[in-house]
Fold each of these.
Amino acid sequence: MFNADISKTAFPADFTWGVATSAFQIEGAADTDGKGPSIWDDFCRVPGVIADASDGRQACEHYQRWADDLDLVASLGVDAYRFSISWPRVQALGSGAFNEAGFAFYERLVDGMLARGLKPFLTLNHWDLPSALQAKGGWENRDTVPCFVDYACEVARRLGDRVASICTHNEPWVIAVLGHESGIFAPGIKSRAAAIQVAHHLFLSHGLALTAMRAQGCKADMGIVLNLSPIDAATDSAADQAAARRADGAGLRWYVEPLLKGEYPADVLQDLGADAPRVLPGDMGNIKVPLDFLGVNYYMRSVVSAGEPWDIKTGGNEITDMGWEVYPQGLTELLVRLHRDYTLPPIFITENGAAFQDEVLDRQVHDGQRQRYIARHIAATLEAMRQGVRVDGYFVWSLLDNFEWSSGYAKRFGIVRVDYDTQQRMLKDSALWYRDFLDRQRAQHGVQATSALEI
Ligand code: FCB
């Protein structure tokens, strides 16, 4: 399924094609030009938490190499580039003085995108909270909410006239659950009650930030990005079905419903018992503000069983280097289900991609598995559109190989290979395929190919 040849299929002419990155994973320059530390700078220093004991100090040196990297983006012929702002780079302590040098970097970056005909898709929080705020409790502390709103307003004031899109938070589930319940991501806290409170503060800060940025007159499209998976029960047994219902509640409905319906799902609240969040009067109304878009990051489905954990090999599907099942039809199922159950704003697939080992031969990088993964998920997106879902764009994760959080640099998601010894970039076969695919899209719409910059 979904290995159909999509080369001859035309997406809508105004569909947005892009590639995505995030600040901490590529920038490096961890304490350059007045940048303050983030919780990921701190977390990387904890022994044993990063698989290869690496950190983000150098990463892809994007802070220095941004202009070449934007040339690379433009050479692919995409419409848009999704990037994130490092909060502590533009406000070292997360409150108080803003850092002019930090803002100057993002002004150069955004102007550089516009000069190359790329639409900037800006994310405010891709996880790198200023350490100074964590010292006061971070996202668990309600006082972080107004700090985020101030930061968002300052970014919107300086860049809001030039970016196409502003996303408040990338994947609140990851920040809440991986950061505060399992503790495998920064800040490494292990408490379900904390995770639930963190999610609430993320939602609240999202809604208040949108309202405040709009009140300032910022015209960029505004929304949020969620990581979502369809949840399948391993068997038809009542126990597995109940486990799937709980997992769907905690992983999907808990994140979608406050934003779109202004309420938490009652069954999950009941499951949470004493861990339910502290919600003040007015919060839910402040969370549910109109979204110009909903970003969906999709990598895999989830299969849930009440007993022994489901063995991923059971599905008989290809498995990526992350140990994630390749399951493109899950993306169609997810989108169709969201469309059926909710009144949705336009959807963007803000991340989709895969880690595989590349074969490097004679300055060519063969990554057929990644290329196929991307093609099949684009086909799955199209299938959802055929079934009536409005999807306005698709972004590959990621432009570059980069710092893959607790997996370090060993897991490569880039369609461009990074040689970390020399910082050389090399287009992989998947990048060449994506470029050709986009050229054909333009040709079908009668538009001259624009990927002028050859490398
Ligand atoms: C997502 C993150 C992104 C990247 C991919 C593989 O959860 O948003 O930064 O790590 O996974």
Note: Residues 192-215 form the longest helix (24 residues).
Amino acid sequence: MAQERSTQQWRDMDAAHHLHPFTDTDSLNRHGARVITHGEGIYLWDSDGNKITDAMAGLWCVNLGYGRKDLALVAQQQMETLAYYNTFFKTTHPAVTELSALLSEIAPPGFSRMFYTNSGSEAVDTMIRMVRRYWDVQGQPQKKTLIGRWNGYHGSTIGGASLGGMGYMHEQGDLPIPGIAHIEQPWWYGLGGDSSREAFGLHAAGWLEQKILEIGADKVAAFVGEPIQGAGGVIIPPASYWPEIERICRKYDVLLVADEVICGFGRTGEWFGHQHFGFHPDLFTTAKGLSSGYQPIGAVFVGDRVAEGLARGGDFNHGFTYSGHPVAAAVARATVRALRDDGIVDRVKNDVGPYMQERWRETFEGFDHVDDVRGVGLIQGFTLVRNRDTRELFPDFGDAGTLCRDIFFGNNLIMRACGDHMVASPPLVVTRKEIDQMLGVAQRCVEEFEREIVRRGMV
Ligand code: PXG
């Protein structure tokens, strides 16, 4: 099919009219954006005809891969039947009810109710309002503070960016908002010193207890964390961490919230990341994999305790025009059915996930400047380091990552650099053969990276 315009025309239009997220506009426009035109399976094509392997599933979301005609058909049929109606004012529609019933089937026990949003950030903001409202209704309106973690990511809205622990986001727009506190992340490689992983996991959970005592348990509403920090660089906490966090939350009657926007819907080999780590949140936020990125939709899974508590308070004054949008709901339902009925979650746990982990380690463990090679299911990372023996990082955290990422990009392989953590989260439908091909390219890219850091005098 002939392209409507040339790459240059699109670049010029984009530069003139489009402001990109998290982007230095002048710098982008000097070079011009890469124009992605179509996708199939784990591959994308750009407007110059390059075939690109997408080891990130878009932004950690296209879990069923690109180009699914069945999902397109579901969207089309729903648009023709009922393109839109709202769920305010005592109305509902089949698409959203069917989705909710299905989600309650795949959710762990105690999660029978969902609240819908258009994105992960909105799910997080919804959760913040819900948690505070819950304590109001319980007669404890002073229990307001939510505790997040440094280097956690919970989105870009005012609430989500506040709760997240990205300093470069807080710097812009006077964040965090009041009633948000942070504790340090459970990053053993960077913060664990001489302690074993398990000892460090308990120690890192202890920071939560300290913070609760500092603020006063009667003022702390919830602790919120990603089971595995995604945008923070695939930080996988030691096994001892989450159970201890749960124990502390129960001890002080603080709600426990898992942000499952990345970990949810099969990424770890379980339906939800908290199931992998064996803890029991009171609520959890989702988006991304819920529709495999085919439609913008998020959901807060509200545990029975909170749902019933909220219900006692009458109106919960919150919601979006597109909460439970019929087209998004129909596509999400088809996505979740595919994940379940085609055995995709199971395959991540028992087949392609373990294969990826084994091949990931074999590929990267031998390099001089790669360490902490890690992963679970189909989410994995490694860290670029100056000296493995002393666990010394590069002085400007992010420079090595950007260099490495650009080499990957230049070789038509998309992996993400989070600081100097290189991460991947391929579509869950990836095959063993595709993993081999992807890691073959990645290996050559890291070889090139190691030559380049020597050439630039970075080591
Ligand atoms: N929570 C978590 C755990 C996320 O990863 C959000 C909330 C916000 O979701 P929305 O749909 O509002 O973006 C996210 C999003 C990256 C990257 O570069 C990661 C996200 C978004 C954009 C970029 O790694 N995660």
Note: The chain has a mean pLDDT of 97.
